[in-house]
Each structure stands twice: as structure tokens, then as C-alpha cells.
Amino acid sequence: MxxxxxxxxxxxxDAARIVGAxxxxxxxxxxxxxxxxxxxxxxxxxxxxxxxxAAAQAAQLSAAxxxxxxxxxxxxxxxxxxMRSVADMPALVGRLEHEQTRADGLRIARMRIPxxxxxxxxxxxxxxxxxxxxxxxxAGNACIxxxxxxxxxxxxxxxxxxxxxxxxxxxxxxxxxxxxxWGEHAAMQTLLLQDDLIDLVIPRGGEALIRFVAxxxxxxxxxxxxxxxxxxxxxxxxxxxxxxxxxxxxxxRPGVCNAIETILVDQAIAATAVPRLVAALRHHGVEIRGDxxxxxxxxxxxxxxxxxxxxxxxxxxxxxMKVVDGVDAAIAHIAAHxxxxxxxxxxxxxxxxxxxxxxxxxxxVMHNASTRFADGGELGLGAEIGISTTRLxxxxxxxxxxLTTTKFVVRGTGHVRA
Length: 418
Fold this sequence. Notes:
single chain, 418 residues, alpha/beta, four-stranded parallel beta sheet
């Protein structure tokens, strides 16, 4: 098997050279054709997905994983739309940036270029298959997609659509988008050793998967261990707004990484805000785990929070709630317990909001908006290949630009260095 994995990686490396040199029109044509195939074959894809979902339910996988696995006609349509959105974005490869001309006439610029070969290792999430393919093609990369066994039927159906897209674009090799055919951990470990052929690994899934990849890879890894996202309701908050954002952030899709996991309430308004937030969240079936102050104000609707709750990514209808003494205490709590994902402040005070934004180092910081907007599609990236919570080389939701780098281009007229 090790030799087979090696051959697959070599084919991807060879394909990357062709994809990177291909025209923008050819790469976009492949993406749009694959999106059309998704739409045309929707019934077949949904049927295969139903097989995976039934098996996941029988295996008693978590509600969050089943939610991420499940496709519906609207979700499948959104996947196709995301692919088209990526294809419609301005060209990246070959773009010149930071152009300058020195006093002696030497012209210097940076040119955006592909990274090369990207390996995606992910659980559930069939949308990662299509998002990753579209983004990698836009950035001029080849990709190797290793999905979880729980989505095997769905990913095979999606792979057929991607293959049709590549076939529709003259000159793009099939290995430009490779669906990794082996589910064994040993095969994945072998893949992670191919540092001479693969340029970047992006794992998406539970913390255990990401730690496994980070510990076994010789290839640079974009890490995102978990999303402990905070909502801080500051003393000058509009409580109707805070309530709506809390419900959206916790209830809409509790099993995703940009859902709210902890709500911090300013002590100055806690007597009014806590009962209101507790009642609203309980109405939607949310379990609330609070500190002593929250329990005193929330009554029997709040259960005691343990020390572990402040670091928890529940991915469920559970939220931790704590009363804090102003913005400094909120920022300190986030520094101690956050995961560098997404934080939001609700306040009518622009100066306090600016202070919060400047001092909180998370990859996405929001003012009067739901944490659910921490998403590549929502932030104008067309789609996302993942969310980085480490600062090198990209931070936050990663779109096509995060899958490129730059090289210096220097143009002279016979210049020599003195």
C-alpha cells in the first residue's frame, strides 16, 4: 500500500505543475462543469448520502457529525452555488502585488503563485469535497481529498462529478483532484510522510483527528483544534439584539465550529440581561451551565458550570454563561479559555467595541453580529477550505488566496548591484 500511496502523490505533484500553468478559463471551466454535474446528478448523490446517514445513525455517531454529514436538496444546491461563486471570483494566479519602482529604475513586485499539492483530510462534511476541489483549482493547485469512511458513498458520488468537470476542461489531468481511495489509518500515515510531494495538509474534523494529523505529519499542517466561540453582552448592549444573536449563534446549527459556546454578560446589566437570555435560550431547548451569579439570576433553569465548561466545544444545544465585570474581564476570560476562532461583542458603544476588536486576537472578531458569519462564503471568499486558528501562514477562514503564496519578480534594464 505504501508504494500505491507514493504513486498517487507523485501523480498529484505532476498534475499540480499542469494545473498551475493552465489558463484561468480552463480551471474555471472545470469548476463550473463539476457544479453542473452536481445539479444534474442531485437525485443520485442524495440517494448515496442517505445510505451514509443511515449507517451513521445505526453506528450512533454524534448528532453534530450526522448533521454535518447530511445533505438535502438546499444543501446540495448551495454546494454547487459555492463552486460557481469560486469560479466567478477574480483571477489569483499570476496577479502582481506590492509593485514599486526604485530610484534607479529597478522594478519590484510580488506575483501570486500556487502552493502546489494540498492534502485535505476530513470527517463527515461532504461539502469539503467540492469546496476544496473548487478552491484548489482556483488557486492553481492539485488536491488529494481523504474523506471519512462515514461519507464514503457520498464522496464517491461527488468524485464522479469532479472527474466530469476536469474532463470538460481541455488539458487538465484527472489527478488534479484525487479522492484518496484508502480508509485505513496506515494509508493516511503514509500520505503524511510525503513531504517532498505534498506542500500543505489541512485537516477538518474533530480535535482527535486534527491532533493525529499534526503529530504524524512531516508536511506543514493548518490546525484548527476546536471552536470555543464567545458572545460578550456589554453593559450598553441592545438586549433584543443580544437575544437574537445568542439564539442564532447557538440554535441555528449547534454542531458547527462557529456556533456560540460561551456567553459572557456584563455585571452592570446582568440582573436584566441574564434572566432574559436564559428564558430565550431555554425556550429553544438549550441547556445552560452557569457560574454562581448566573445561577442566582437564572433560577432553576441554570445548572452549575464546572471548570471544564469554560473550555468546552459542545457542538450541541448547550451553552456556558458567566457574569463578568466589564470588557477587561471579558477579554481576560477569552484569553484564558478561547481557541482563537471567533468572538463577538454586543454594544452600542463604538469605543468599547473598537477596544474589544483591537485586544482580542482571535481570527475573527465581530461587533453586533452573530459568530455564525465566521465562514468563508459569508465573508466573501466564495467558499472556505478550512479555518486556521494558528497564525502561519493564514488565519481564520481560508479561501483560494490562502492556498497561494507569492514570489518576488524583479525587472531591470541591465542593473547590477554596487
